[in-house]
Amino acid sequence: MIGSITLLLLCSERTDASVEHAVTMPDVRSVMPSIFKIHAVTYRYDYQQPWQAGGSSAGSGSAFYIGDGMLLTCGHVVADAISLELQPHGSSARHPASVRYMAYDADLAILELEDPSVLEGLQPLELEDAITELGDEVFAIGFPMGGTRLSLTRGIVSRMDHATYAFSGSDNRLVMQIDAAINPGNSGGPVVNSDNRVVGVAFQGIMRGQGLGYAVPTPVIRHFLEDAQNPPYHGAPKVYLQTFELRNPTLRSTLGLETPGPGVIISDVSPLCISADHLKPGDVLLSIEGVTVKQDGSIFMDNNNLPFWEVIERKQWGDPLHMKIVRDGEEQDVNFLLQPEPTPFIFRRIYDRPPEYLMTGGLTFVPISRNQIMTLGNESHESLIPVFYYFQRALFDPDVADRKQLLTLASILPHPVNTHSDRFLHHVIRSVNDQEIRHLNDFLIAMQSPIDGFHILEFEAMSLPLILDAATLDQANAEIQQRYGVPRLYAIHDPPQTLQETETNKDIPAEGI
Amino acid sequence: MNHKSCLNIIVLFFLSAVVGTVTTRAEEVEPIEQQLIAVLPDELPDMTRSMVHVRVSQIEADRFMPWRSSVPQRREGFAIVVRPGLFLVPEVLVRNHAAIELRRAGFIRRVPAQVVHADERIGLAMLQATESDWFLDAVPLPVLTEIPQNGDFTILQWGANDHLQVGQGSLLSIGFESIGDGIPHQLTYELAASMRIDNTGTPILHDGKLAGLAMQFRGGRRTVITIAPENITRFLEASEHETYTGIPEPDFYMKRLADPVRRRFLGVPATYEEQGIYVAATLPNPDVEHGLEVGDVILEWDGHMLDARGNYEHAQYGRIPFQHLVAQRMPGDQVPVKIIRDKTVKHMQVLMRTNDEVHRRIPRNEAGKPDDYVVSAGFIFRELTLDFLKAFGDSWERRADIDLTWHAYTHQDDPDDPVQRTVILVGVLADPINIGYRELRHQIVTHVNGHKILSLADLAAKLDQDGLKSVTLSGMEAVPLRFEPAEVEQANQRIQARFQIPTLSRLTNIPAQNAPME
Fold first, then answer.
1. pTM recorded for the entire structure
2. Biggest CA pair distance of chain B
3. Do A180 and A140 contact (CB within 8 A), yes or no?
4. Could you give the ipTM of this predicted complex?
């Protein structure tokens, strides 16, 4: 019904030509009851003072029923949520819901209702199987700008591209750019074609651009749904490689390659990545899964030019990967299984868990993370260079390879014990009492072994250590906790297994007291 | 020395707001002159023979395309007479000069001058007029030996039409100020000035003798930062040698040692309470076996006790930084130093030397020198300097390439590294020869033609020897970028013509290992 009304309204404002165009509008009446408005209350943690309670805020988005008691929406609508309620189209009722699966790398989430009977009789929306093409007509359905009535906007697919998913801040993945108007509140709503089949999930836009809305396209949605069938959710596989285009004829000739011809050269391989065992800098990547890799690292796929890693991202962890490379002038086949990678611990924005920290002598150490970097705002001064460097380069710095976290002195709560510590602010810790620090838990353990009555904290690229008097530290900590209202001296999640098993760590709780 | 006979004297005590009017509309100033002329100090020398106008045409190099430069800017100031033909100015006035002209008061003709030597670290430069018979009746001013702490100072400058403006100053404070960005602090003093000082190099007199040169006028506070007479004397002494010797500086970075816990940790006995500084880093010097080591605590320097801030007790000025003590010595002197090393008190001798930027792997740009560069196959090579990073503008710590910034941060001074300078690829000028390489920029060059690169001069030598065959960049060691040397020569001609590059290389700075120690 609303679809018809919208059509009428549009017709009343448009020329004959657009009326003719409008006859392709889908009849959304059949799927309208399957689209819900999300009322979310979220709790945002305080990364500046991580021991402190955060704040809550309310927001709204959209979700749609995809069958089997599951509703699909955007991750950013429901991340950090402490309350989720779903309001069906045409109803004033709000039904409590919870997150079943979350894809931080794909900005997608699957919700389930406490009362699944609400979904009875609803027609699930189905994913379109066909490749979405440039110029395909699409319709965005949702609850933009907080309205309680469904909104339908029309546009075309204006580009299939790779772009950063703002939700994680770091994942560069396939996106579908559409010129249908989408606005805050549309997030999580379906983008359908004229057959009412889902071709995307509306998720982000460019404020300064005109008609630049983005939807998560079907390959990413499909990957998420498949992955979620085999919990826990692993995310899209990644191989952390840096490549350099092979356009230069002299360079190609030196490598024994003809010009023109395929192939991109691998210039660096992250030591964090499983592919480090199979690929090495200098290898020329000719094809991946039988798809030719062009000189600039792109492949032709789905009638589009896409980066070669799109092939990998469509696979699941555990899947085999086949590449053809040239190494030392010889063509070789490389086969390996995609294994779960260590989490890119710094780059992806963290949700749904309180920040980790360790405070000693009023010095607050936190793992460098996107969340922590964001607390710096536009601050820029020389003392921040270590944080900026490690944030951007941790993946490819071999010295970082076996570290689970990089810890920085994020703030200092003034107390006589730290009067002379300002110069260490924002620096990255290297060792404590001669013990290398690769995780907050290492820090905790190292603080149990002062040297000659001193705690010696050494920082990267600093010759001067920070010295704390071990004898007075407990008293100082107690005073600081009391003065600044710090309930716990540390919060540490997921201590590395090897450390949990160490003798010294047996009695250390995961949460500080 | 009757200055009144040749100049229209305007004395402006507490009337700076009308300076502009006074100097452009002479008829309105008469009453002021008549009213205030009586307070002009009798001992004022004839400044027409002791100072000259300086006009400098100054150009800033483009850090990214070093053969390009900014539109010339003009600066004006004063120089004082050292002897006929030689003149002293604040170094900042002639930094990055393209042309310098001198003019006597009361004369229209300008005479070209050149810099004999400039020392940005002490903030002074020596100029020489190019016409040997010009201004032979110049009279140098006597220079005070120290900052006078009693009585008024006299500030002298010429306004339009060479009207002499005379103001008064009174001493506010003696301190150590950084004369330029990244320059070690130097002894200066701050005067409360009775008038606005429009020109760098305005002489400050006391009892008819030179007490300093104005460096920087702080309009908001109506004060002027002035180069101390000690620095002028030391500069003139160092200039007397056939080769300018420079002024010694500490060749280490110090940190204050205020933290009592750190003091105990380092084993500083309680008897040395509030005494001693920490050696945090030593600077590279290929010619000198270094005496001091990181971790040393310096208790005494050259017979003076150092406090935990690095100050010593000066007979006249009270507590001032020990850098001043260092600057009183000559390069090559040995000075006694008392330190704590490994929790034990030790005595040692430390060799005094100048601490030119030339010794550093990542220097600032050396003042007054254009940026060196080499262009080959469209690749723009230069050395990494702090000024290059700062050319990225405000928030350069975020905006400059983080690998370069981190490299500069961690490799600024590494005495054991054979690499004298870090050479970088600034960018690529498009030409058919560099197809596929054009997106490259701001990366460290590790090898050329398979040879490790130690400096830009080293890179240029490799190119002279073998032409350009390959370039290896940091982070891409496995992918040397290849060239056909025969094609490079033709490409260089095309690129030079297309991009209007006057010369494909400029190599004026001497690599560190070639700089002899005096």
1. 0.84
2. 81
3. yes
4. 0.86
Are A509 and A495 in contact by the 8 Å Cβ rule? The answer is no
Sheet containing strand A490-491, strands side by side: A407-412, A363-367, A357-360, A490-491
The residue type of A146 is G
Q: How many CB atoms lie within 10 A of CB B38?
A: 7
The yes/no answer on whether domain A2-10+29-119 falls in CATH 3.60.21.10 is: no
Q: Which among B406, B431, B484 is the top mutation candidate for probing chain A, defined by the most A β-carbons within 10 Å of its own β-carbon?
A: B406
Q: Which of B259, B396, B482 sits opposite A467 (nearest CB)?
A: B259
For the stretch A336-371, what's the b/e string if a residue is b when 16 or more beta carbons lie within 10 angstroms of its beta carbon? eebeebeebbbbbbbbeebbbbbbbbbbbbbbbbbb
CA distance B236 to B223: 26
Write out pLDDT tens, residues B304-328.
999 999 999 999 888 998 988 998 8
DSSP state of B72: P
Q: Which residue in the set B280, B398, B435 is minimally distant from A248, CB to CB?
A: B435
| Fold for the domain defined by B1-247 | Thrombin, subunit H (2.40.10)
* Residue appearing with tokens 């009213």: B35
Residue A496, pLDDT > 70, answer no
Residue A467, chain B, CB below 8 Å: the answer is: yes
At B11 the pLDDT is 29
Tell me which chain B residues have a C-beta less than 8 angstroms from the C-beta of A254.
482
For the segment(s) A357-505, the CATH number from 3.40.50.720, 3.40.50.620, 3.40.50.12780, 3.20.190.20 is 3.20.190.20
Taking only Cα atoms into account, the Rg of chain A, rounded to an integer number of angstroms, comes to 26
Residue B408: C-alpha distances to residues A167, A388, B87, B364, B389 (Å) = 33, 14, 37, 11, 9
Q: What tokens appear for B437 in the block?
A: 């390489």
Identify the residue among A284, A420, A468 best suited for mutation to test binding to B, counting B beta carbons within 10 A and taking the highest. Answer: A420
Whether residue B483 lies within 8 A of chain A, CB to CB, comes out as yes
pLDDT means over runs of 10, chain B (518 residues): 35 27 30 36 73 93 90 93 95 91 93 92 92 93 92 87 87 79 75 86 93 88 91 91 84 87 92 92 64 91 95 91 88 92 92 76 73 96 93 89 92 71 96 96 96 95 95 95 95 97 87 36
CATH topology of domain A241-337: Pdz3 Domain (2.30.42)
**Residue B370 near residue B430, CB atoms below 8 Å:** no
Contacts of A331 (CB under 8 A, 6+ apart): A286, A324, A325
Could you tell me which chain B residue has the CA closest to the CA of A281? B478
Identify the residue whose tokens are 């995307």.
A200
Is A171 a residue whose pLDDT tops 50? yes
- The CATH H-level superfamily of A125-228 is Trypsin-like serine proteases (2.40.10.10)
CATH class for domain B358-514?
alpha beta
* pLDDT tens readout for residues B253-307: 888 898 999 999 999 999 998 899 999 888 766 555 558 888 999 999 999 999 9
Token pair for A228? 């979620």
Q: Give residue for tokens 């054991």.
A: B416
Shared fold status for A2-10+29-119 and A125-228: yes
Q: Does domain B252-351 have CATH number 3.20.20.80?
A: no
Query: For residues B199-213, b (16+ Cβ closer than 10 Å) or e, as one string?
Result: bbbbbbbbeeebbbb
| B7 at interface of A, judged by CB pairs closer than 8 A | no
**Cβ-nearest to B436 among A251, A267, A467:** A251
Q: Taking a C-beta distance cutoff of 8 angstroms, is the pair B219, B212 a contact?
A: no
Question: Could you state, in order of their start, the residue ranges of all structural domains in chain A?
Answer: 2-10+29-119, 125-228, 241-337, 357-505
Write down the pLDDT at residue B42: 53
Domain ranges of chain B: 1-247, 252-351, 358-514
